[in-house]
Design goal:
The structure holds 2 protein chains of 2 kinds. Chain A has one domain: Porin. Helices cover 18% and strands 53% of the residues of chain A. Chain A has helices spanning 3-22, 28-32, 36-44, 59-67; strands spanning 49-57, 72-85, 89-103, 109-124, 138-160, 167-192, 195-206, 229-240. Chain A has an 8-stranded antiparallel beta barrel with strand order 1-2-3-4-5-6-7-8. In chain A, a hairpin with a 6-residue loop joins strand 5 (138-160) and strand 6. Chain B is mostly beta strands. Chain B has one domain. Chain B is built from 1 helix and 11 strands. In chain B, strand 6 and strand 7 (102-118) form a beta hairpin. Chain B starts with a helix and ends with a strand. Classes of the chains: A alpha+beta, B mainly beta. The interface between A and B is large, with 48 and 36 residues.
């Protein structure tokens, strides 16, 4: 992953930490003098059940339109169902399907296809001002555990002996299950009544990629690419029920 | 201003992600697998009357695979170690080694293991030495030190030459 990407990510985290701070009361000293009973009143006025959000991720459509070509095709369709508890805790189930093909100039090719699911929770880091009307904007941070069960094939891997002569071609067809965890941070805003737009950045860490020398997939549905870790980006459109 | 950040940052992140999606096929990992062999000689120490092992340097050495036209080393002077490519597609390789004017043939028996590197690099075939046989015109014996032959160069066998 390029350094530029890391700098942008770091900048966005700092920026949104600043935005979150901006949501706090301007006069901190005044806020600190509020009584405990008033704070309790503010938090207990929010009912536990705040409904559910159903979202789809449109980022893969954008990315695939720019990066797919005859040598490289990646596709992914994914969505999520997220409950909203007290406007602070948002458990989520994500699911989808994905796959990839990759053709190298030496005729080696890779293909994968499968389903994936993720389970996790987000926390809303934006706290409404005491007594203020609750706005349906969120600065979310959370985590996921992901799993993908899929098949992949690698064809025409060539073993060539330049001194003794001869060539051997190896083909693999492997069913596998991969697990990973993700750290997620992002924002979501209500742009029309009950309609939401949001985006988030994910740092993914693969939990079982086999020992050194083992055959590994070039692309894992739901996880993407990367031998031990990967970055991901989602752009979501959702509806609140 | 906040609205600007909301739209601008994801666009930058997406653009950065797209830039990093390149189609580079370059393999940057080593795929060279060679069996390392060093030369030794047991010499009698006249003071202690015991044999000591010393490194041996061949005045001239020529090495090639048996039945292969191309040579691996051609009359190389003052050489004390060689690196030999074993046959990746078989489990036995025979080498003809000429020390000065004396020929010996060594036969290496091994089994193969494929190690996957990446889609771009493919597989590298490593070997584990089971047995090494030799004729004894000038070579006295051969010891297996490190049976695994892989991309890391090590001394796999020690070739002892007669005095």
């Amino acid at each position: 992953m390029s350094k530029t990407f890391k700098y942008i990510l770091l900048s966005s985290v700092i920026l949104f930490a600043g935005l979150a701070q901006a949501q706090q009361p301007q006069n901190n000293s005044l806020a600190n003098t509020k009584t405990t009973s008033q704070s309790k009143k503010d938090t207990t006025t929010v009912p536990v059940w705040q409904g559910i959000n159903i979202e789809i991720d449109i980022e893969p459509f954008i990315e695939n339109a720019f990066t797919n070509n005859t040598n490289r095709t990646v596709y992914s369709y994914q969505g999520n169902v997220q409950a909203n508890l007290k406007n602070s805790y948002l458990p989520v189930i994500e699911f989808g399907m994905g796959g990839a093909t990759r053709n190298l100039t030496n005729n080696t090719s890779f293909r994968s296809e499968g389903m994936f699911g993720k389970l996790g929770v987000d926390f809303n880091l934006l706290k409404p001002k005491p007594g203020a009307k609750i706005k349906n904007n969120y600065f979310l941070a959370g985590a996921r555990i992901g799993m993908s069960q899929f098949n992949y094939t690698i064809d025409n891997l060539i073993i060539e002996d330049n001194y003794w002569g001869g060539t051997e071609i190896i083909n693999y067809s492997i069913p596998t299950t991969k697990f990973w965890f993700e750290i997620v941070a992002g924002v979501r805003v209500e742009f029309f009544k009950n309609l939401y737009l949001g985006w988030n950045v994910r740092n993914k860490h693969l939990l079982n990629n086999g020992k050194y020398g083992a055959v590994t997939p070039w692309y894992i549905p739901g996880y993407g690419r990367g031998e031990t870790s990967a970055w991901g980006f989602s752009y979501t459109v959702g509806y609140h029920f | 201003m906040k609205k600007l950040y909301f739209w601008l940052l994801p666009v930058l992140l997406l653009a950065s992600g797209l830039i990093s999606c390149n189609n580079d096929e370059t393999c940057r990992k080593s795929k060279t697998v060679l069996m390392g062999a060093n030369f030794y000689q047991d010499t009698l120490n006249l003071k202690t009357n015991k044999y000591v092992t010393i490194n041996y340097k061949a005045d001239s050495l020529t090495a090639s695979g048996v039945d292969r036209d191309s040579v691996i080393y051609n009359k190389v002077k003052n050489i004390s170690e060689i690196k030999l490519p074993v046959d990746k597609l078989k489990t036995q390789s025979r080498f003809s080694i000429k020390f000065n004017e004396v020929y010996d043939t060594i036969t290496v028996l091994y089994h193969n293991t494929d190690e996957y590197l990446s889609l771009e690099c493919g597989c590298v075939r490593t070997h584990t030495i089971d047995t090494v046989l030799t004729t004894n015109h000038i070579i006295e014996k051969i010891k297996i030190i490190q049976p695994i032959i892989n991309t890391t160069y090590v001394e796999n066998i020690q070739i002892y030459l007669a005095e």
